[in-house]
Amino acid sequence: MANHKATKKDVRQAAKRRERNKYYGKTTRNAIRDLKALKTNAEATKEFPDVASMIDKLAKRGIIHKNKAANLKSKLAKKINTLAK
Description:
Elements: H1 5-37, H2 41-61, H3 66-84
Helix pairs in contact: 1-2, 2-3
Protein name: Small ribosomal subunit protein bS20
Function: Binds directly to 16S ribosomal RNA.
GO cellular component, one term: ribosome
């Protein structure tokens, strides 16, 4: 690492961003896990929009790819629809 003020600042900013992104990612993964654990369609249907919103925010922030976000939401929707049967 160079000893420039700007480089040191960039390292600090990157560390801060990395921590923030890690928090958002982990929180979303936990929400997905909790949604998958639900057994009734009514509960899952109620929780799905919040989780889908969290996934969309990750994609918007560039933490995950937009196609991965779409795949996650699709799989969760399929799982919720199977609970209805």
